Amino acid sequence: MKMTSSYFAISPTSPYERGYFVYPSQLFANIAASANNNESLNTDLAAIFGAIESSANGYPSERDIKGLFADFDTTSNRLGNTVKDKNLRLAAVLKGVSGLDFGDFEGSHIDLFGDAYEFLISNYAANAGKSGGEFFTPQHVSRLIAQLAMHQQTSVNKIYDPACGSGSLLLQAKKHFDAHIIEDGFYGQEINHTTYNLARMNMFLHNINYDKFNMQLGNTLTDPHFADDKPFDAIVSNPPYSVNWIGSDDPTLINDDRFAPAGVLAPKSKADFAFVLHCLSYLSSKGRAAIVCFPGIFYRGGAEAKIRKYLVDNNYVETVIALAPNLFFGTTIAVTILVLSKRKLDNAIQFIDASGLFKKETNTNTLTDDHIAEIMGVFDRKENIAHFARSVLFEEIAANDYNLSVSSYVEAEDTREITDITALNAELKTTVAKIDRLRAEIDAIVAEIEGEAS
Q1: 159: which of 200, 289, 354, 451 lies 20 to 30 Å off by Cα?
Q2: Which burial class, exposed, middle or buried, applies to 78 when counting CB atoms under 10 A from its CB (0-12, 13-18, 19+)?
Q3: What confidence tens digit (pLDDT) does each residue in 374-403 have?
């Protein structure tokens, strides 16, 4: 089935269904059909985007739609120096999309458009260097994080990402679990305006209605949203690694109920633990948070050591998982996943060394479904496996200055070849005997030659 107008059509008589509507003349199929002959295509598209946003004015969806297309500039010179050039490029895009087979969207779980959108984001991230990783977490890692956060929860009230980027982590939770398990929807905050719009579009394109998601723009650490919506049963996050924040330069932050319990703020040049404490504050008593972290925070001293002590002393750390290097866009470092829980039944912390689980790709490594299943199996059973996983009691961690680095507790396997010393000595004796015999034979030959010469 080719894309038809029904994919985008929202009836003007039922604006509450999706929170916006599109007039018949503005439906994708009608615009694409006349694209090649439309001399005002670029301005028509700009008007359509404006009309879609305006259609939500006065309705509950207004906030979720407003500014959604702010970063779409169909009149930009980047599309071409002349109107004709711009229209040619825009028409080519429309024709390309119209030729895609989207299947029976209403009657199946096919989500080609939403997944294609996410595919384009991931490809941009892969080729954008360090900046690309700022708003997109690879799907294979997202699957692991979503499963960790929602493990053994038959239902969650809502799921939250305090640094949501394009929303890929939240969407993995939707893909992995039946829709009904997430009762009250998807929540996220993003500091970058363009990426914030990407997250909202990603929700719409993955068939999540405006009343089932809440995306907010702003700095999570200094201007947090959703205080009235917490606590959350599931939190997933891949916050920026070791970024600067205002920290101790704002004396009021030490009294913030997110940071005050730890008694210290994360360093101004390393905000990692500020995000961790924020997540912990928003986490419900039954929930889990799975957070991708820079590995240095698990062994460095100073304020970070004091925060680790607070987390361990209060039994909030369930598992620490070391991943393989080069799994993320824009960085080759081997990151670590921190799993927080407020419902632990013992005071042990599980450490998993998954650094050897990866599939080598052209530019990056990936986690396969088998790798994820192996990690989740050990996470669930909390079993000890030599060189892979170990549960460590509080006393040992406290005695180790609250170091939470996986390598401090899970011994790496020695892959060097084992040498049999007894066999080696016997071989050496045999070799030495051969050398002595050869020397004697050479000496005899030399003596014979010298005798003949005299």
Answers
A1: 354
A2: exposed
A3: 999 999 999 999 999 999 999 999 999 999
